[in-house]
Automatic annotation (TrEMBL):
The chain crosses the membrane at residues 38-60. It comes from the Eukaryota. Keywords: Membrane, Transmembrane, Transmembrane helix. Residues 70-95, 285-310 are annotated as: Disordered. It comes from Eutypa lata (strain UCR-EL1) (Grapevine dieback disease fungus). This is Uncharacterized protein.
Length: 359
């Protein structure tokens, strides 16, 4: 098929040599057959369809990586124990470890086998000042300090602001608000439609209702409450952590543990695991926030910003722990692509949760 040299009376392609040469390479003319042109345009379309979302995900991962830190480990456990340590103990001493499956947890299919595989994924935000939290999470005294800091009278200059400590924070209200946002974000993910459909098919009205925004907005995440169809709150605890060289000032940790427990009548795949959502509130001082992001191959990452003021600081954490028998097929989370996408999703959840509770 020859290249058309005129499109209408006022335009002649013969006078535009550069455009003519360009069209020569993309138009099926001369030796360029229709099959060649079809292959060219098919390859171009495939590149756009696959390449554009991939670039978007890579840019999103880069953006989220500036605001979150991730750790990931996969270990074999034998007889309910992992390398001589209690089952589920990954031998890391860092403040973000929220979930430690007990032998009773692993006895649910995995520990009963000769060997099992346990996967742990932890994603946390960088530490932020408690002064940046929304007013509804501050006590009356802390709220007055925040308001005084925001007032500007011109002269004389305001005195240095008093520090807001972790004792001025509504810890349980904070973790509830963070958890509501992350769970609502989950229900808007594409794969949540499949979960919703399978939960509806199970015929459990409570499980179906737990996927609705109205339910999640009022959920207090008490022990026994169902969340997002697939989870049941198994534990809720508050614990203290003393100051040491690695972790800095004293800390208070509030954790909500959700167990993967499909409703009765569920016919889809069953994954054994726990999800821990929590906040780590650490007193000001010489903090040891120099954590690094570790890659799946033991890689490296950038150092988390350090703080040396007396202000309290808070870190938001999401930890996923799943296990299976050695004979079972690896889960999606264990795959390179599936694991990368799951980590990306959780990073996004954490960032959305932080945005919901900060000013």
């Amino acid at each position: 098929m020859p290249i058309p040299t005129t499109f209408h009376h006022s335009f002649s392609l013969s006078h535009h040599y550069k455009l003519q040469n360009l069209l020569y390479y993309i138009w099926p003319s001369g030796t360029r057959t229709a099959r060649t042109a079809l292959a060219f345009w098919g390859a171009t379309a495939a590149t756009l369809v696959i390449g554009a979302p991939t670039v978007h995900l890579l840019l999103l991962r880069r953006s989220l990586g500036r605001r979150t830190v991730a750790r990931r480990s996969s270990r074999k456990i034998t007889g309910g124990r992992e390398g001589g340590a209690p089952a589920g103990d990954d031998n890391h001493r860092y403040e973000n470890s929220l979930v430690t499956p007990t032998a009773a947890d692993l006895d649910d299919g995995a520990a009963a086998a000769a060997a099992a595989v346990l996967l742990r994924e932890t994603v946390s935000s960088h530490a932020i000042s408690v002064r940046d939290l929304k007013p509804e999470f501050l006590s009356d005294g802390a709220l007055q300090i925040q308001q005084q800091q925001q007032q500007t009278n011109g002269s004389p200059p305001p005195p240095p602001p008093l520090p807001i400590t972790i004792h001025n924070i509504d810890k349980h209200g904070l973790v509830n608000a963070f958890l509501r946002t992350t769970m609502q974000s989950f229900t808007r993910m594409p794969h949540a439609r499949l979960v919703r459909r399978m939960v509806l098919r199970s015929g459990d009205p409570e499980a179906s209702a737990s996927l609705e925004d109205s339910y999640l907005s009022d959920c207090a995440f008490r022990v026994g409450e169902r969340v997002c169809g697939m989870y049941v709150v198994a534990e809720r605890r508050e614990e203290k952590k003393k100051k040491d060289e690695e972790e800095g000032g004293d800390a208070t940790v509030v954790v909500v543990i959700l167990r993967l427990k499909p409703p009765v009548g569920w016919t889809g795949p069953v994954v054994r695991g726990l999800l821990g959502i929590g906040v780590v509130l650490r007193e000001g001082g010489d903090e040891g926030d120099g954590e690094e992001e570790e890659g799946r191959q033991g890689g490296s990452g950038s150092e988390v910003r350090k703080g040396g003021d007396q202000e309290g600081r808070v870190r938001f954490v999401s930890e996923t722990v799943v296990w299976r028998t050695a004979e079972e097929k690896p889960s999606v989370l264990e795959g390179r692509v599936g694991g990368w996408l799951h980590e990306l999703m959780v990073r996004w959840f954490v960032v959305k949760g932080v945005e919901a509770v900060t000013v």
